[in-house]
Amino acid sequence: MVAFPSFPWLARRESSAWCRTGLARDPSLQTAVDDLARQMAGVGPADLALVFASASYASDLPRLLPLLRQKLQARHWIGCLGGGVVGTEAGGSPRELEHEPALSLTLLGLPGAELHPFSLDGADLPDLDGPAEPWRTAVGAGPEDHNAMLLFVDPGCGTINDLIGGLDYAFPALAKVGGIAGQHSAPHGSLLLGDQVRGGAVGCLIGGAWRLEPMVAQGCRPIGPVLEVEQAQRNVVLQVSEGERRRSPVEALQTILSGLKPEEREQVKNSLFLGVARSDFSLERSGDKPPAFLVRNLIGVDPRNGAVAVGERMRVGQKVQFQLRDADAARQESRQLLRQAARRPAEPLAALLFACLGRGRGLYGHPDGDVSLCRETFDKLPIAGVFCNGEIGPVGGTTHLHGYTASWGFLVPEG
């Protein structure tokens, strides 16, 4: 158990808000739960318990919450299974545990919080073309008194984008952070709510005296100029322009490649993406401020006409820019965003990380890559989370489903 009230910034609130986190790694679920209970000994009833389990426990998942609830007290329990888990060890060191048995538990005392857990059936969603009220009825609450949403979706849900879009429509001002849970072969879902395993989606509205501040690190750096889409059909870009010059996307990329270093041209073979701007404003009209780019996969090239297929529906007039993904770009972007987060006046009580399975060791070449970057800026902040099959977070004011991303949520007091 991490004694966070001993830290100065938390001691100022120790009579009210508190956070305790535990991490267990035994292959036996019962032994891992017993270990967490020992780490949490003496902790009073929590307002919210966040539980993240690695896929090693998939077959035993229905036993997890009942076992924890026998030993620990919390008003609300929520979490999911993942390809790995993120947690903070007893000595205060955050860890990213991939491809091994691990349970991460975070207990939060949040006085003044308005918490509303909910579940949704992915096969019976309200109409996206209808009013917002049916979505709010399905969630069981309105946007009043809430300003953030944790959201976990089962990988078997066939309406993930519709679900995210509908919740954004019904709760437009709420920051939404979370991810797609881990896959497994057991005959049940991957989501945890109350004392049950669920499919579809589960979430928790957060408001009152608390909110989540989101941060999405996409792990890419731009190469070449910002281009404008001149011709597009569905998710295929046929022609782009730079100033008065029009050409195919492949022709534009060939020009960019000629100016890259040899090692960068090698990276293009496996790490090339396309950034799609979230704004239609030109650079001149936005005061030379670059647009916010949503990084999307390039999923195909037509050698006949130089068109490219993108993992996003495209339209004429959008700004786009080719992107390279690598460890150095991920570090640079995360450090910049974390420093910006640290300059905000509200001090976080905890950080939640929802990271792509393609990050971790696979991206950085060593363990604990993203949590170590967070620790550079927030030296004692408890961190918990899970490795996802897709990450949920906002870019340019709209919630998106991402890949290769670290989607963060910093739990901070309101006001």
Would you kindly provide a written description of the structure presented here, covering whatever features stand out?
With 415 residues, the protein is of the alpha+beta class. Helix content is 22%, strand content 40%. The strands form 4 sheets. A 6-stranded mixed sheet has the order 1-6-2-3-10-11. Strand 19 (293-302) and strand 20 (307-310) form a beta hairpin. Helix 8 (327-342) packs parallel to helix 10 (369-377). It is globular, with a radius of gyration of 22 Å. It starts with 7 loop residues before the first helix and ends with a strand. The model is unreliable at 1-14 and 281-288 (pLDDT under 50).
Structure summarized in a few sentences:
The chain has ten helices and 26 strands. With 415 residues, the chain is α+β, with helices and mostly antiparallel strands. Helix 2 runs parallel beside helix 3 and helix 8 runs parallel beside helix 10.
